[in-house]
Design brief:
alpha+beta, 3-stranded antiparallel β-sheet, two-stranded parallel sheet, 5 helices, about 30% helix, globular
Amino acid sequence: MTTTPPALLRLPSPLGRLELTADDDGILSLSIETDGHLPLAEYAESPSPVLRQAAAQLDEYFAGTRHSFDLPVHLTRGTEFQRSVWARLSTLGFGEVISYGALGTDIGRAGSGRAIGGAVGANPVPIIIGCHRVLATTGRITGYSAGQGIPTKAWLLDHEGIMHH
């Protein structure tokens, strides 16, 4: 059974409802509604100041007035390899894109495309850490694990003006 996070907040977005969790150190997770479901739907909201700040910044992002997030993110889960991928993703700015291969090279794991893809897909804080900015070398969307999958990723890429196919 999942334990209730210290702080929980839900908010509407153009992608469906978002659900954020946080501890005292920062944001732990962001989930995008999938087929009407959120992972912690049975729990009551318990907002915190950092979650209210995240909600305001996400609203600004979706409105097109914010291009970077200034939020404490606390990546407590994941392997050292996954955290290195997420750290590199967190350096990508609004409208920037990287290929899976270049991402692997950047973290010293060239030729690890499948493992890179798995780590990108396991990102616990999509949008805030822009895993949608990773494409195949050809610019093709190869998948997305949040929300409605590829349509969600395509919306985020279009929102940031990133060319894809």
